[in-house]
Amino acid sequence: MKKFVLSLLFAAFCISAFAQPDTVSITLDNVAYPYPVKFLPVNTDGQDLRMAYMDVPPTVNANGKTVMLFHGKNFGGYYWTNVIKTLTGKGYRVVVPDQLGFGKSSKAFIHYSFYKMARLNKKLLDTLGVKKAYILGHSMGGMLATRFTLMYPGTVEKLLLENPIGLEDYLSFVPYKSAEELYKGELKTTAESVKKYYQASYFDEWKPEYDYLVKIGGNVSKSADFPRYAMVSALTYEMIFEQPVCHEFGNVKVPTVLFIGLEDNTIVGKAYLSPQEQAKHGNYKKLAPETARKIPGARLISYPGVKHVPHWQIPDRFLKDLLNNL
Span of the secretion signal (predicted)? Predict the structure, then answer.
């Protein structure tokens, strides 16, 4: 019964998102987040910026533990609603940042770096008085979570990776593209192209609630400030290409769990590959066990028939597995 109620609440939130405006601000100012958003002032590359985050207290007796959620490249903290609700309902405090360049955080022209992002997230935890946390990273957030863990192993209770990208070194087989070249491609983004990409890459069967993700991720392209957003997106793609973490998995020294939808075939830069090259890479059925073997003592939880976003495609099963591994 509890699962049914949770699913109804999640669906209700997603449906309410259809009230979101057709034109979305590049800092999502006119997008409703599920919990109050605060801002951490930061200075980097000589600029005063702000990093958005949600700090959600437990809704039952606090267990004294904190979970930090790192979003993927095409998302922000808004898509963690069901995960936050479940964790806070079990006594966890949940901290959900929008990384610089994403969500409600500043869209600055800076040198984007997983090292820099890791330091800013450590600063956020320090500011909030959190000494240790479980770190859950999805997609690009998995790369960041890995870098964070390598830099601050004493802060990480456990590393949790949900369909992370970067399980292979993309520049070893994807032709190099500069930020300027990537920017030209990002400018072509439309709500229609975003939905087409999500349908092909993220979910095997489209459900109405997925339109919530498209409405935010796609309608930002209608903003007058979209060229800035597109350039920041290009700069963060450049970060992904140039700062792999896969060569350092063997250096991870904290307990690690991988939650992997086995039908995932994500390749950053896939459009620049021939069909023959595409077939050689992005195979999570192969990459997932290989990665689990590289990380000392890692546990792999596999989801046959599931693609890139398990916490949306199979929320009940994912959340049960997540709780069982905290």
Answer: 1-19
